[in-house]
């Protein structure tokens, strides 16, 4: 494995960690939104949720792309550890996005 491949692998691991931190922040603010039912400004939490989801998706998918570029040089287990969380986070993004759209439609009608 060349130095360039090793550095991409290290950046992929760092990006995965940063993406998971952003995802945890989004999950925290979702929980905070549903717990603070008496707070009239609780809808402001959705802004933090969207920022967390957008950044976590970006970091985790870029981590998966970096892992693909060094796929032949890294073990299969490490490749799965970088790509599977990115796919799960992408699926969570889709579920939260569609759920918030459905909630908005239900509230308006």
Automatic annotation (TrEMBL):
| TM segment ranges | 9-30, 45-70, 82-106
Give the top-rank taxon of the lineage listed in the UniProt record for this protein.
Answer: Bacteria
* Keyword Membrane recorded: yes
Q: Which UniProt keywords apply?
A: Membrane, Transmembrane, Transmembrane helix
Q: What is this protein called?
A: Uncharacterized protein
